[in-house]
Each structure stands twice: as structure tokens, then as C-alpha cells.
Amino acid sequence: MTVRTVLQSADITRALTRISHEILESNRGGxxxxxxGIPTRGVILAQRLGRILESIxxxxxxxxxxxxxxxxxxxxxxxxxxxxxxxxxxxxPASGIDGKTVVLVxxxxxxGRTIRAALDALGDHGRPRAVRLAxxxxxxxxxxxxxxxxxxxxxxxxxxxxxxxxxxxxxGIEEVSIES
Length: 180
Known about the structure:
Order of helices and strands: EHEHEEHEEEHE
Low-confidence stretches: none
Helix content: 25-40%
CATH architecture: 3-Layer(aba) Sandwich
CATH class: Alpha Beta
Largest sheet: 5 strands, parallel
Number of helices: 4
CATH topology: Rossmann fold
């Protein structure tokens, strides 16, 4: 087994800062913007994006209040094939998502099935004006017609390789590596 580090802490911070600027530009500011992280690491990334958005545009001001999480466990189409993980609570901003631009945040985009499940889950909680997708890593191999709007790093991989995202809040280390 070979492990190759492709992003270190500074690279991850730079990618998240760039994504934050792209989100603000795309949304024409921070108004009516909600970031929803997909557990586990997507939630941490959404929180970081919220803090960066707030530092870039102080008018965003309440961006941290507009950061939440969206659990997709029970919406997955592969529940029988994957080991079951305990569902995490979905936490939406008090103002809800109706009429807002929702940015789904995840660590790695692979087949697109997690995002399809997130879209299903989102529909049970309201009707956003628009839904966007931000991912730290896009590794290709899509099985569904889903594309990220904001990508930190495109990492073409083989299906046999594994992308490991480690964040200091969960793992005590900050890196993205490819394991082959």
C-alpha cells in the first residue's frame, strides 16, 4: 500500500478561501445564503467556509448562524450494501432554507450518490431558491449526472484508489492523501 499526500494544511486553507470567494461572487454577496455540511467532514468544512465568508465580507455577519448540517444516511440508495452508520442530527438554521441559496458542502465527490441523497433529504426540509455544491476534492468516477459548482482540487483517481481527508478537528492532522 502506497500513501501519497496531495494537500497539506496550507493547501486546504487556500482551497477553502478560494471556494469562499467563488461562493460570494456566484451569490452576489452573502445574503440568503445557507451552508449545509454533509456529516462528518463536510460539516467541519462548512463551518470553516462560514468563518472565511464572514472574514471576507463582514456584511455576511450572520453567516455562522446560516451554517448547518444535513444528514443523508436514511436517504442513501446503498443502505443494504454499506455498513450502517448512526445517523447524525440534521441542523438547519432557524430561518430555514425556503427561498435561500443552499450550498451543500462535502469533503469528496465520487459517484454522486451522497449528493443525490442530500438533494432528497433537502426536499423534505423546504424549497431553496437554488442549490449549489462545494467539495474539497472531486475525484471523478460519477455514476449520476452531478457536478460540483465549487471544487478545491480535482484529483483524477482510479477506482481502486482511496482518497483520505483528514481534518484537525476530527483526526488531529490536516491533509488529503491518496492511498493505492
